Amino acid sequence: MLRFLATRVGLLIPTFIGVSLVAFGFIRLLPGDPILIFAGEHGITPERYHQVAMQYGFDRPIWTQYFHYLGNLLHGDFGQSIVTRRPVLREFITLFPATLELSVCAIVFAVIIGVPAGVLAAVKRGSVVDQGLMGTALVGYSMPVFWWALLLVIFFSGILHWTPVSGRMDLLYFFKPVTGFMLIDSLLSGQKGAFTSAVSHLILPTIVLGTIPLAVIARQTRSAMLEVLGEDYVRTARAKGLSPFRVVGIHALRNALIPVITTIGLQVGMMMAGAILTETIFSWPGIGKWMVDSVFRRDYPVVQGGLILIAGIIMIVNLVVDLLYGLVNPRIRHR
Amino acid sequence: MPLLEVRNLTVTFDTASGPFKAVSGVDLSIEPNEIMAIVGESGSGKSVGMLAVMGLLPKSATVTADRLAFEGQDMLTMSSRARRRIIGREIAMIFQEPIASLNPCFTVGFQIGEMLKTHTSLSRGERHRRSVELLELVGMPEPERRLSAFPHQLSGGMSQRVMIAMAISCNPKLLIADEPTTALDVTIQAQILDLLVALKNETGMALALITHDMGVVAETADRVIVQYAGEQVERQQVAGLFSAPHHPYTEALLRALPERAIGNRLPAIPGVVPGQGDRPTGCVFNPRCPYSTEMCREVVPPHQPIELGRALCHYPRNTEKAAA
Questions:
Q1: Size of interface A-B (CB pairs under 8 A)
Q2: What's the structural domain count of chain A?
Q3: Does A331 contact B106 at a Cβ distance shorter than 8 Å?
Q4: What is the pLDDT of residue B322?
Q5: Burial level of A56, CB count in 10 A (0-12/13-18/19+)?
């Protein structure tokens, strides 16, 4: 187990270097000069341009810039935004809780509904229930995210007035962020109604972001369950006189979850990278929106730093998934 | 009263190419503390019949019977909840592939303990002690330590021992063993059979032994049922069956035993068991039977009287040696 962990952590180093190289290189391949974009329509004098370029090191050869950047990274210095002049790392830390809060809610939503739906479809294989569930899953998977989001907003916010249209909190409430997670901060603030407001703001973005993972998880659970339900040990469980609920929910599901966990892990990784469409539609101040804005501004340090941080988080999520995998699957744990 | 009584059991599967009768008109009764062997080639419906008794067949199977009763209780009409109180506790079953039959995600201790938890009121500590005791009973080395082992850490023979321990944990009155040694090494086969017979003698349970191995039958069984293509072709005491088989199929099976072969060629039975599409008219065995006549090809044979092993044959063999 320890050796497994050590190997996995060791593998992170070359991955990290690769990611930094790609992050550094790709944004520079894009046409568009950050200084010119920042200067705007007024333009900039050649002298001033040169001065700014020197300040950011853009005048030096690209590989020198890279090694300089890598050296800074090792000291934990991700540089600062060209636009806001604030350290990239601090901006990330400020924005990431919003993304994390939304991602966690969305994945919990997707798992809580997707896994039982998949199990039900597998148990009722070929029935109307199965076809209905899998048809719905296919629709959920194929629907454009922005369109689905707009439909929900029109219906629940526009017509029914049940949920707010955007943001994380009503303007009525104000409190200093402690953890950055609205659900926790609103409780800590002790203001009446703040928590309810945080929850109601989360509902629609959670559904929108969770829909595709839900569909993927439901379909994956169904096919894994179908495979497992035909196994000899499920017959043994029935032969023991166990209730159908125990046979399916304990003996079959535990085995079926092994491939599903991999899927869930991949989905979580993708969400952590920031749900660009969802965050944009609901004006959710997370890192997805932040990254897109930075790309448009050619804010090199933010794009590089953001990419590396996101990649790091995805790597950690994958590591956690692998460890969980061992926990669920004893055949891996005891190797 | 017999422990298990089955009359005219028929199992039909819905398949893409129409209904398929896997078992048809099987009668059997199992008395307490006896070993009943059910013999036949692959595809003879010997497992399907017992799975039907356990209620373990998939939904595509339709089970009908004039009577299917355990200790006088009708198992066909009882609720599935009532049936689950019998399955596992009163009638237990072990299978052909012991490694695949244990759940890979749970420890041996969990899987045995679960059985005890479902059917007994033992406390946690008592269940643990009983599990250790059971593993000892089935001859598992280091039983205490094995409780925390996962199935992939066990060999086939050890897995079957665990399956047996689990099956006998609630002192069942009937243990159905579906080819319990087929998947095991030859050296282990004898050990597992000896264990089953010893447990049967010790606990007083009855044993329904499904096998295709006539050698196993000769060594262990009290009574034998021979099945062919879903039909019960003969039913006899083991001694009578070996000395005077009444059905030509039984006779052919015995002749194919290596230790009984005369000369230096082993007499095989020509042909294969008919499948769904190629069932012959008349007697199901007629295409492979050396004695078949026009009558066998056209008329379905009747069951002969009990003295002739209820042989499903127009021309039963060894009639002069009919059981008294």
A1: 69
A2: 2
A3: no
A4: 74
A5: middle
